[in-house]
Design goal:
Blueprint: E1 14-18, H1 27-36, E2 41-47, H2 59-67, E3 72-78, E4 96-100, H3 107-116, E5 120-125, E6 143-147, H4 161-176, E7 181-185, H5 193-199, E8 203-206, H6 218-235
Helix pairs in contact: 5-6
Length: 236
């Protein structure tokens, strides 16, 4: 493991809260809890209805949340030609912007453009996307987002091959001695978290499976999520 330390006892495995899954009728209160519990990122799923079959939040909603939070942002742009909307968002230090190879006509150009805006940059890999996508851009990115479900809707079942993909990416990062975080998004549940973390996940996107649960208080779900992270760390 690398030597970077997190702000709380769960070593260098960070939590990115998927705001798409927040309780919208109590969003202000839940945002306060995320702040109080020192959650690492607010995860913004931006979907255009073309790249993936759904629509989510626009920049006006996202910016309103940001005005009321000190938490860094973790943008996941599931859109066709993401460069068309880069200027819609204000980049703050530590923010992550992740785009998909499948949606970008010129992936390297778009990554360079994002970095010039001051963002940490990432590439997302769908369950069926080959790791060969990384061959010529891996040294230019900060984050690899492994999708363990197909983009679009929350609550999907885990694609089991994704765990092996996390392991292979971790091996590659280690062999190349690169400082790249592996983020995991999709069915990040208490059952799956230990294996995800043991396989090499550095950032977990918490959504409807492990963070914003209908039958559990948000503080309790955060505590349980961190306990599962620790189990995974102990298995490394």
């Amino acid at each position: 493991m690398n030597s970077k330390k997190n702000l709380h006892p769960v070593q260098n495995v960070e939590i990115s809260a998927s705001i798409m899954c927040i309780d919208w009728l109590h969003a202000a209160r839940q945002l306060e809890i995320l702040e109080d519990e020192k959650i690492d990122y607010l995860h913004w799923d931006v979907i255009d209805g073309r790249f993936a079959p759904d629509f989510t939040m626009g920049s006006s909603i996202i910016n309103k949340f940001r005005e009321n939070s000190h938490i860094r942002s973790d943008y996941h742009l599931m859109v066709e030609e993401p460069a068309n909307i880069f200027d819609s968002f204000n980049v703050a230090p530590g923010d992550i912007f992740t785009i998909h190879q499948e949606g970008s006509r010129n992936l390297h150009r778009d990554l360079v453009s994002l970095r010039r805006k001051g963002a940490r940059v990432g590439v997302a890999l769908n369950p069926g996307t080959s790791l060969e996508v990384l061959d010529y851009i891996i040294e230019d990115i900060d984050v690899i987002l492994v999708m363990t479900v197909n983009p679009g809707f929350m609550g999907q079942a885990l694609v089991p091959q994704a765990i092996g993909k996390i392991e292979k990416i971790k091996e590659r990062i280690t062999d190349l001695k690169l400082d790249i975080k592996i983020s995991v998004d999709g069915n990040v549940s208490y059952e799956n978290i230990p294996e995800m973390v043991a396989s090499g996940a550095d950032i977990l996107v918490g959504g409807s499976s492990g963070l914003f649960l209908k039958d559990m208080d948000l503080r309790d779900s955060i505590k349980r999520l961190r306990e599962c992270i620790q189990i995974g760390i102990d298995k490394r």
